[in-house]
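## retry 2 of 3
previous attempt timed out at serialization; input unchanged, resubmitting
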Amino acid sequence: MGMNQTPAAQRMHISFFGKRNAGKSSVMNAVIGQDLAVVSKQKGTTTDPVSKSMELLPLGPVIMTDTPGIDDKGELGQLRVQKSYQILNKTDGAVLVIDGTKGPSEEDRMLLQRIKEKKIPYLVVLNKIDLLGSEGSLQTPKEKMEAAWGTDFILKENPILVSAVKKTGIFELKERLARFIQTEESGRIVGDLLSPADFVVLVVPIDKAAPKGRLILPQQQTIRDILDSQAAAIVVQEEELEKTLKCLGKKPRMVITDSQVFAKVSALTPEEIPLTSFSILFARYKGNLKTVVEGVTALDRLKDGDHVLISEGCTHHRQCDDIGSVKIPKWIREYTKKDLAVSFTSGTEFPEDVSCYHLIVHCGGCMLNEREMKYRLQRASDQEIPITNYGILIAYMKGILKRSLKVFPELSELLD
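## retry succeeded, writing output
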């Protein structure tokens, strides 16, 4: 997979924040080496987050996002400020751009406080230093800033001094950016459960919602992880599973299925062959399997009138009989036999306040990065609202979740 094909969910997200006219767009454009974000002397030119995928060595593939000014005014301006703060939820590294001729404002300090609360790695950039270096002056731009607004902030935040116009300090900024995020060794989707030469059978129904001629992202990523383990991936539709298992000549290491055909695949897969789903593997990959397994048991406690939120991470065009908006609400009502209220959100929409819900059912989150997914799980946990995902929910309702968790013995006991 080339750098430009690296999925957004697997890229580091670096976001540029700051007041209107601090030069966020100019600084970001200087870093990526091309004009992308709109630059103007007029305040508030950036009205929506603008993103660009690029490679930042030695960090690797990243997404850089320019955000609206955190001091925007008026009702519309406040919505833009809210958008900037929402971007923090999926930001792996933040860059706060401050106008070096004016110093940090109250808005800058408030945002910095929020960044620290969220434990997001950050850099402070003081822009426009070209306006501070008047000829013949005995003071450096840094000394002028210290004289104007004290040494505390500069000592504490160790800012990078740049001029987006003159490109001064941009190289240092790129160097610091590429190193300031502590990257953890990425986990495996399934590779740690495999040995070289293992067979893995993947059951992939050709879904009407999947783009023609393509597999959906979790399926692609799982196949790649199997191949990286020197194992073999055999991909079939559910109708071909029984015949394939008979023809293989040896027992596969496991069968991995799409959740929508879980019950059918479970019936066709002999008990001695481990069975799990893409959804379960991805919940483990993103570090939230225990949470969503515990959350699904709330299904048995729902009462008439309770409110369920169904949330998707992407905003694909809804097909007829769509899994999130049609199938899952129908299956939940059939399973619980309760009269439930159901709400839906998609994409970046995820409510700040989820306390009115009795259960949240989230998609697998393949289009969300790890930080955004953990933020959503944490929000539910903080408000003591159970949360699960599509695949876990389907397996539980079909009575096959326990079998599907046998590959992770430490988790299957949660259902005892």
